Amino acid sequence: MKLIDTHCDALLKLQLTKRLHMVNQTDLLSYQHDPKLDTNLERLKQGKVAAQFYAIFVEPDLPDNEKWQHALEQIDFFYNDVLPSPGMVHIREWNQLHDLKEGEIGAVLTLEGADAFGNDLTKLRTLYRLGVKSVGLTWNNANLCADGVGEPRGGGLTLLGKDVVKLNNEHRVFTDVSHLSIKGFWDVMDLADYPLASHSNARALCDHVRNLYDEQITAMFQNNGLIHVVFNPPFIKEDGTTTISDLIKHIDHMCALGGVKQIGFGSDFDGIGQFVEGLNHAGEYQNLINELMKHYKEEEVRGFAYENFLNHLPQ
C-alpha cells in the first residue's frame, strides 16, 4: 500500500555530511542508495512511499547571520540530490499529489522553525517560491515567532508569528504545530486555515513534552487539522523496547478521539537515532501497514497511509 510521510531530516543529514567532508574528506552521501540515509531513494521505493516531505532545519544555536545560508544549503541538496533521483517529482502545487504515476515519488519541501528567515518576510516569501508547502514556526527553542516546547516561558505567538500564519493561509501552506509551545498551539488554532502536526504523538500515552494533550488532539480534529504520528521511540513509550504495536496504540487513542479520517504518518527518519522494532528505515514501512491491517479495515488503513492527507489538502 502506498503512503505519504510528512517529516524527515534527510536534507540536514546531507548538509552535515558535506560540511564534515570539507573538513576531513569523509565520504559524501549518495541520496539514491546510501545506507546511512533512512529515506534514500531505494528505501522509499521498497517502503512504497508515494510522497516524502523534506524538512529544512537550521540549528537554533547557529549565529543568526549564518542561518539563512544553512537553509539555502539544504534547499540546494533538495534540488541537486533529491529531485534528480529517478522518479522524483517536485510537488509545487497540491493537486500534483493526485497526479503521481506508478513508480513516481512526490518530493515536498517544508520548513521546521522560523529561525531560517528571522523577521524577514521577504525570505519567507522566497521559501514559498522555492516550494515550501508547510511551515513550523519553531523547533524546541524560542524564536522571533513563538516559543517552542523547550522554552520554559511558554509564550504564544508574537505579532510576527501571527503574520506568518496569515501568510501561510494566503499561500495555501500548512502551519505545523509540532514543536510549538502549548500557548502557541492555541494561538495557531485561532488563526490557521491549514493546521498540521507533522510528527507528534499522544501525551496521554507517553508524557513527553513533544506530544499533544487530548484537548489539543481534539481541537486539531475539530479544526480540520491532521496529526501524523512520529516513529521516535521516546515519543511512543517512556522506556523499554518499542514495537509497532506500541506505535499503533497512539493511532488507536487518536481514533477514539474522533480522528480516524485525520491521522497519518510523519516518521522523522534521518532525524532520530533510536528506532521502533521493524521500522528502522523507510524501506520497512510496509511492516507498519501489515500490522495495521490486523487491527483496522482496509479503507481506514488507506486513510492513515495516504487518503486522509489527500482529503485535507489546502484549497
Mind explaining what this structure looks like?
- Strands 1, 2, 3, 4, 5, 6, 7, 8 and 9 form a nine-stranded parallel β-sheet that branches.
- The protein is globular and about 50 Å long.
- It has one domain (3-310): Metal-dependent hydrolases (TIM Barrel), CATH 3.20.20.
- It is built from ten helices and nine strands.
- The protein is α/β, with parallel strands linked by helices and 315 residues long.
- The two termini are 26 Å apart.
- Strand 4, helix 4 (121-130) and strand 5 form a beta-alpha-beta unit.
- This is Membrane dipeptidase.
- One of its GO terms (molecular function) is metallodipeptidase activity.
- It comes from Radiobacillus deserti.
User: Going by CATH, what is the homologous superfamily?
Assistant: Metal-dependent hydrolases
Number of domains: 1
Whole-number radius of gyration? 18 Å
Order of helical and strand elements? EHHEHEEHEHEHEHEHEHH
* Anisotropy-based shape: globular
**Low confidence ranges:** none
Which CATH architecture would you pick?
Alpha-Beta Barrel
* Mean pLDDT across all amino acids: 96
Count of runs of 4 or more consecutive helical residues: 10
Reported for the largest beta sheet, the result is: 9 strands, parallel
